[in-house]
Amino acid sequence: MGIVKILQSRSSQILFLTTYWILIAFILLLRAFSVGLSHDEYQFVASGQIFARYFLLPYRDYPFLHMPYLPFVNGVLFLFTGGALLSARLINEIFFLASALLLFVLIQRNFGKSLSWAGIGAGSIAVGLMVFDPSFIDMDGRALNHALPTFLGLLAFSFYLQTGSSPHALRWIAASGVAVGLATGARLSFAVMAIPLLAALVLFPSEDLFKNRLIKGVVFSLGFLGGLLPAAFLFFLAPQQAYYGNLLYIRLNTIYRQQLDFTNAMSLRQKLGFFITTILETPNGFVEYLLFFSVLGAAALRLVRKRQPARLDLLVSASLAVALLAAGFAPTPVWPQYFFAPIPFLLLVLFYGLQGWGSTLGWLGMAILVAVLLLGSAAPLGTLWQAIHHPQDWTTAKAALQANALRAVVPSGQVLTLAPIVPLEAGLGAYPVFTNGPFSWRTAPILAPEKRTLYGVIGPDELEDYLAKDPPAAILTGPEQNYEGFTADDTLGLESPFTQYAQFHGYRPQIFPCKLYTQCTLWLK
């Protein structure tokens, strides 16, 4: 009896939650230190570095291939931390940790306003499923633009939920719109969140005191546009370059992949096949989506048989999950991380719905999810366990060593490279046109020369003229050796123009310790 009382006490709940969240934070932070470097990180880190150092703006001052908010978040952070890869990765994990906390709160409150073991258990399972979801693991730990909009998207949904119980409904509606606008300013695919939220406000009656649904829609829309005002300002400063970064580059990348005879996840049929083999064939993905559609099917049956409509929070979260899932199929090709955005809302649907199934089915569903969580977390935990024992292999440690090695032989000046974060972390300069690493460079030959000038990008034909006014103090090649070249038969071709420039202008290859990459060559005068 004494043990039961202890378990039921508030102090035992607090002890469990403290231990649990320390463990989740440790997992996320360890990934930030240890996960391998991706060249997708370059533009988000380098853009923040050159904002902190030179106050250069995306689009206007250099080609940026996403919505523009993350460079400013990282840039402000780098003003205080010196621009290290580690700090960009840590702020990324802080946003993911905040998303996990918000997901936990949303689910726990579904079981009552006060803490209960049922709510704590459901919230903890949901967070665990998110942290060990295959699409999450694929990009977690890296300084990409998924964490910030994920947090803002969940925040927008939580603001929306407040409208039904608050006398200040319009304020919460405006805040929800602003949050979606800010999420869109970090990652364009999150714009689809506006559709379900706006539809819910306009089409469905609510319990709040303010009944005019049209005005609610207008307030939400104004909030959404308000969240996008900084992006609109940057678009105004450089409309052609903003068009290139957010729309045209998507088409150029598709053409580039087609030229390489890349056949993985290009057509809609291939994308569906990729989703099935990469997401649904994993235990986590299969069970999560099976239960997701089971919950929606059960809600539809209750509506048909008993005329009992589904809960509005379940419908809205389900609509958000479907909208974000559909947005994940938009890029060509698709990658696993594109399918993470719907996962938090999918988990909300699961736990909203499982509670509505009654105690037996609900607890059975939770038991299945616990089994999936234990199965799906075994291999990732093993990887993290290995990382704990080999801190010398952590990517952030290698980045610092690489920066120190570069700074020892290149005291000042610009470094020509497709890996701009390396010289920038060393306190050296990198050319703004290569802020996004290899991406604009590898697709530049697809554009006509006058179009390259219009959009502020260069290709091999313009390299000589671009460097004439400010020749590099050093040239670093090798970071792109494991990636595609300009053509299918040109594996190392992206850096060949750099090598040719170096040889023509009297640079000589130097022995240089390569920490981050399989191979690298430093060229010095």
Strand numbers in spatial order across the main sheet: 2-1-3-5-4
Distance between the termini: 79 Å
Q: Quickly give the structural class.
A: mainly alpha
Main sheet: strands, sense, barrel: 5 strands, mixed
The global form is globular
Question: What is the rounded Rg?
Answer: 25 Å
List the total number of helices. Answer: 24
Mean pLDDT: 90
The topology string of helices and strands comes to: HHHHHHHHHHHHHHHHHHHEHEHHHEHEE
Roughly what percent helix? 55-70%
Q: What are the low-pLDDT stretches, counting only 5+ consecutive residues below 50? A: none
Count of separate structural domains: 2
Question: Into which percentage range does the β-strand content fall?
Answer: under 5%
Number of strands: 5
Describe the structure.
The chain contains 24 helices and five strands. It is mainly alpha-helical and 525 residues long. It has two domains: 2-34 and 84-237 and 282-388, no CATH class; 393-524, no CATH class. Strands 2-1-3-5-4 form a five-stranded mixed beta sheet. Helix 2 (10-34) runs antiparallel to helix 5 (85-109), helix 12 (229-237) crosses helix 13 and helix 15 (283-306) runs antiparallel to helix 18 (359-388). The longest helix has 30 residues, at 359-388.
